[in-house]
Design brief:
mainly alpha, about 0% strand, 2 domains, UraD-like
């Protein structure tokens, strides 16, 4: 059984720059036994948060193939996830397309495009980016949260596999 401090230290980064999720779940998860159960608890915490806190969570995510990636300013998890999808190997044309889509998306929705990119390639990500840019705000807000939950689940599974 893990105490609250150790739990937060271990799981505080599952949701990007949002340790509040682990802080709120810690008292409920002291007896957790697997990544699946913990993922559900954390997702419920986010889903029951207020819209402003959810928006802050979405905004805590970096742009895909963005300036933070180029400058080496991503969290270790985000960097590994973007690298796994080949976003560190964009051609100049792909990079420019990502930048244009990032800007258009932020202008339309007021938050970054979020996608669980592990297992996807650059072409699939760009296609999803273009398609989701056509969504309305409410649908895209919900889609971003669903993708964030996928990212969290993948991060938890990765931790479980190396534990």
């Amino acid at each position: 059984m893990m105490d609250t401090h150790d739990f937060i230290a271990r799981y505080g980064g599952i949701y990007e720059h949002s340790p509040w999720v682990a802080e709120q779940v810690a008292p409920l998860a002291s007896e957790f036994d697997d990544a699946e159960r913990l993922a559900r608890l954390m997702a419920d915490c986010v889903d029951n948060a207020g819209a402003e806190q959810q928006l802050a969570l979405i905004r805590a995510h970096p742009d895909l193939a963005g300036k933070a990636e180029v400058a080496g300013e991503l969290t270790a998890d985000s960097s590994e996830e973007q690298t796994s999808a080949g976003l560190d190997r964009c051609s100049r044309v792909e990079y420019e397309r990502f930048q244009a889509l990032n800007e258009a998306y932020r202008d339309k929705f007021g938050f970054p495009f979020v996608m669980a990119v592990r297992g996807s390639n650059r072409a699939e990500i760009l296609d999803a980016f273009s398609a989701r840019l056509q969504n309305d705000y409410n649908l895209e807000f919900e889609t971003a949260l669903e993708e964030i939950h996928k990212i969290a689940r993948l991060r938890l599974e990765a931790m479980e596999s190396i534990a």
